[in-house]
Amino acid sequence: MFALFIMIEMGISERKEREREEMRALILEAAKHLFLEHGYAKTSIRGIADRIEYSPATIYLYYKDKKELMLALQVEAFGKMNASFGELLAIADPFARLQRMGELYISFALENPQLYDLMFMLEAPMEALECQQDSWLNGMQSFDFLKQSIWDCVEAGYFEESADIDALALTVWSYMHGLVSLYLKGRMVIFGEDSQLDRLRESQRNFIDLLSKK
Amino acid sequence: MFALFIMIEMGISERKEREREEMRALILEAAKHLFLEHGYAKTSIRGIADRIEYSPATIYLYYKDKKELMLALQVEAFGKMNASFGELLAIADPFARLQRMGELYISFALENPQLYDLMFMLEAPMEALECQQDSWLNGMQSFDFLKQSIWDCVEAGYFEESADIDALALTVWSYMHGLVSLYLKGRMVIFGEDSQLDRLRESQRNFIDLLSKK
DNA sequence: TTGATTTAATAAACAGTGTTTAGTATGTTT
DNA sequence: AAACATACTAAACACTGTTTATTAAATCAA
Question: Which residues bind DNA (chains A, B) (predicted)?
């Protein structure tokens, strides 16, 4: 009798929780679709609401504000990027792994410019982090992987024994981020409208040289 | 008689032109003040209008839209940055000059985060460029100076004779931009809240090493 | 100087934005 | 069946960039 009461109680609240998660996913799906098409600024709460045929106010029952919604998308984006790095585990040579990681990083950025924006350029999702910055640290597990690969490079004799892994990892990341963000934000027009991607690739090879010729 | 007529005619139209430029400068001054305090997104046309005690519509008589207003600010920002590079002309050794240029670039970015945003991260001013992209090329004269310094480094034997100057310049710029933009956009929190500036400096030294040990 | 005309400025509106509030149904519990 | 809780929304609030119609002033032609 008591057990039955609890089961019904738990059954309903569990269903409610499930429905709540389904609704959150529905909103997120619509947000993602619009965001990938038009970017953060041009994605409106009303647009998202229209797409799922709910009122705008409903969205605020599931997400605190637009920033938190974008943070949820950012988490998804990090998942996608981390997944794209999966093949790296099969590369034994650490320097080859490092090089391939750079290629994959650039590919991800160029193929998912809006997601890249969300992850590394927009302030909105970062402001939503506040206390719960675990999701950012979690998302940045790829940076740990980068550090590990650099460590492996040191052990394999590619870099000096005295190398500062943290600094080196930040240096590599900075270069990669700088390169793709200059490209994505249209700051490479100085090279002419057409040859920009070529310049990007040239610089990429250049940086590999810089790293390897130490 | 005829000459007098012309003089009056010209005198008025010249005054009008002068007054128009003064008004443009007045608007720009107000826009700059608000922008430096709150950034692009939070700077409103109404806010600018309030500050100069004119109606919002008046601003549209002097600037096509908000993007064009921000483009004018971007041009000013480039002027300021180029000026900050002035002292480099006094440095004879090309590698020391290159190193100092990096320091000045980072200093400018950290001391003028909103201006840096305008110059290298926001899309708004770039969209306003359209046909008249001369202002961007003009603003980027510092990039030519960077290329020149790298060329000098090659001649002085710091880099290989076969070095691709364009690619190397882009590589240096990408790294610098990546480093400061990761910092400015709060993506270096993985290093903890306090040590970020130290990490930035460490990486900077690291990159110099990478360049010099070739 | 007077009347016509161009110019400068604005009030008000338009179409949008993120977000909050008050109210209404529906589902759940007692 | 009555009391309560939940999900949802219409409408409003306070903004945003931008356009239009109108007014007042400066300039021009007679």
Answer: 44-63
